[in-house]
Amino acid sequence: MSEGGIIYSDEREESIPDYGSGKTRVELTDSNALHEVPKVSNFDINGDDEFQNDPSSPNSSGFTTVIAPSIGNDTFGDDMTATALQNCKKTVLSPYYIFLKCIGWRRCKAVTYEVRRTWPFMCCNFFWPFFLTVLLIMSCVTQILLCFSRDLIESNPPNSVTNITEITCSDHIFSSLVILDFLLVGTYLYGLYIFRFKLSEYLSTFIETVFLGIISRTGSYSPKNLIRSLRFFLLLGLLWIVYSLCVSIMRVFAHHYERDVDFEFLGRIPVIVKLILIVVSLLGFIVFDIAYTAAVINYSMQCQLMVYYIQSICNRIVAKEWEIDEAIKQVHTARQFMNKLNGHLSRAVSSMMFIFLYSSVISLWGLQKLQHSDPDLVIVATTSILGTIQWVLWLLLPLIQAARVTHSGCWLKKTALEIRTRPFSYRDTPQLDLDSFVNYCGSIQLKAKLASIPISPALVIGGSFILGFVMFLVIELDNFSWAPWL
């Protein structure tokens, strides 16, 4: 069985263990070539390595089976690639899977197959996502009862006589809170569906395919730089979660929830009850933030891998390591990965980007309600600005990565035209084959999509320029009347 350039061990492939050398010989019968691939222990292409060496597992064969991706007629399974893959698993995949397990989007790891089949372990894997879903629903209900969202709180200055802060909900509570809460919970459940039940998470498979296809061991497109870039996305996600939590806590203290508060729906409640409701809301914020990070980081990583994969195809075509037929097959594999990238994951990230856009606008709109006489002017304005930066950052990251993927697809088409107009390496190749390759590369669409819209660098740069220019005109012509405190 073959998928995405991966030749599995049950098709035309015979694994011969060599226990003395620590390597496994993989015989590819279609090319009658014998390659030696270093054994990458405890690494499974799907990321589920807990049953890799478990003798009790029904999938265990008693020795480590190496699945060797076939990139053309070469199998890049040398020690450097094996070390890079193992390093990537420990420093990229394992921390990322922690994100997924924290929000129930990935099952907990079992030590043995028998433990996995026990009732306590199965109940844990079932009740943890269920518990998180209930927590998110309670968090949304609590926000409505408190008239409190992480982007805007409807409040009045404390009464000068009683020193009691009155919090009243906006007349647009249904559109500002209820609909958004439905979208938040729906997005979490959709992510739970695609990451855990539908098994549409191809990150580990994609990582191995890209690593085994990289030619250069140094330079901009080396395995070392790829691992470094993937680590950067993980670190950025962790910092964003901490940053978001700090902004949420600042927003709570900015509106003096430590004072006596008279809520519109709850009235005056004990301080301990008020703190419990706030903690429930903050816990829901943390779960949502981890879900946002898991989806956005996954999409960004796959875009980064797609850029490296297309670049490796271009390099091999220019170096004529493939014949035209094999080059067409690899381009088709890239198209398959692109279709997966534009599938469920793209739709989940697109829905989250709508939330990011809405939250950033609401954070800016909160500045409009401030007055010069507001005693908390500085901290409230600072919190609103930091909240806007928080959402804009997570809004731009998928756009930038998608634009880079589309640019790489255009570069592949330019490479095809180059070998057709100046076929130095392919001078012995029939012109009809070169024309077929150019036509095929020109007919496929290697474009990343968000909300079913192809994202290109021109769209991102041009849209940012127009948006910035419109905002500048609004601020100048309106003379800051939208924010009288400025």
Automatic annotation (TrEMBL):
<protein>
    <recommendedName>
        <fullName>Gustatory receptor</fullName>
    </recommendedName>
</protein>
<feature type="transmembrane region" description="Helical">
    <location>
        <begin position="377"/>
        <end position="397"/>
    </location>
</feature>
<feature type="region of interest" description="Disordered">
    <location>
        <begin position="1"/>
        <end position="23"/>
    </location>
</feature>
<feature type="transmembrane region" description="Helical">
    <location>
        <begin position="345"/>
        <end position="365"/>
    </location>
</feature>
<feature type="transmembrane region" description="Helical">
    <location>
        <begin position="126"/>
        <end position="148"/>
    </location>
</feature>
<feature type="transmembrane region" description="Helical">
    <location>
        <begin position="169"/>
        <end position="190"/>
    </location>
</feature>
<keyword id="KW-1133">Transmembrane helix</keyword>
<feature type="transmembrane region" description="Helical">
    <location>
        <begin position="273"/>
        <end position="297"/>
    </location>
</feature>
<feature type="transmembrane region" description="Helical">
    <location>
        <begin position="232"/>
        <end position="253"/>
    </location>
</feature>
<keyword id="KW-0812">Transmembrane</keyword>
<keyword id="KW-0472">Membrane</keyword>
<feature type="transmembrane region" description="Helical">
    <location>
        <begin position="455"/>
        <end position="475"/>
    </location>
</feature>
